[in-house]
Amino acid sequence: MSFKYHGTCHCNQVELLLTLPSAIEQYAARACDCDFCSDNNTMFLSDKRGELSITSTISLGHAKQGSGQAEFLRCVNCEQVVAVVANVEGHLLGAINSECLHDSEKLQRPKLINGPELNAKQKRERWKGLWSPTTLSEPD
């Protein structure tokens, strides 16, 4: 059994669908303590056994931070960060900004993670263990 959760950016130009193997009440978003995540008030949610689908009617802003391996996706209209993605061993993996989910209030209390303390290899290994296989659709 899987559980599907919908979300959007503030202006509804970006639609998100997160499929999880367990009910959302079983999850806590991860709050990274890096400057970018703190400044943008982002907390991410994913499950390596789930799936994330990102569909945008407008081109997304792509920004790299820290080690430059991952891309933070932002709606260029309302400026909300909607997800973070990375190509890991030929697979697109990602995590949704939990603030975009319509059911975000059902999540457990966020867990703080220390992103800047990991080196590039450690980050990829963490992402492989946590992030969801992701599909991304946006105009060219």
3D architecture notes:
With 140 residues, this protein is mainly β. It has a single domain (3-137), classed as Metal Binding Protein, Guanine Nucleotide Exchange Factor, Chain A. Helices cover 11% and strands 45% of the residues. It has helices at residues 35-39, 120-130; strands at residues 3-8, 14-20, 28-32, 44-45, 51-56, 60-64, 71-75, 81-88, 91-97, 108-113, 132-137. Strands 1, 2, 4, 5, 6, 7, 8, 9 and 11 form a nine-stranded mixed β-sheet that branches. The protein has a two-stranded parallel sheet with strand order 3-10. Strand 7 (71-75) and strand 8 form a beta hairpin. The protein is globular, with a radius of gyration of 14 Å.
What name does CATH use for the topology? Metal Binding Protein, Guanine Nucleotide Exchange Factor, Chain A
Give the CA-CA distance, first to last residue. Answer: 35 Å
Main β-sheet description = 9 strands, mixed
Order of helices and strands: EEEHEEEEEEEHE
Rg over alpha carbons = 14 Å
Arithmetic mean pLDDT: 93
Total beta strand runs: 11
| Low-pLDDT residue intervals, each spanning 5 or more residues | none
- Per CATH, the class reads Mainly Beta
Number of helices: 2
Name the CATH architecture: Beta Complex
Strand content: over 45%
- Percentage of residues in helical conformation: 10-25%
Number of domains: 1
Structural class, from helix and strand content? mainly beta
| Shape assignment | globular
